[in-house]
Write a structure and sequence with these properties.
4 strands, 4-stranded antiparallel sheet, Alpha-Beta Plaits, alpha+beta
Amino acid sequence: MKRVIIQLGTLTCPSCMQKIEHAVGQQNGVDRVKVLFNASKVKADIQSEQTSPAALKKVIEDLGYEVEAMKVKELA
């Protein structure tokens, strides 16, 4: 399992946060997703056999949000 941390451009409203959480959470292989509104970050725990950090980035960008940076950590 991996934790993906995605730094977004500035989020302007709570509905943006909910839209991103919902879209990312619907992806196969996403176990947990949390959007930190004030920090403009998305944290997602994924099963790497079923999805990838690049796939999550694409989902977010397809919603019209800017991805500024991304980090991936292995979870034990």
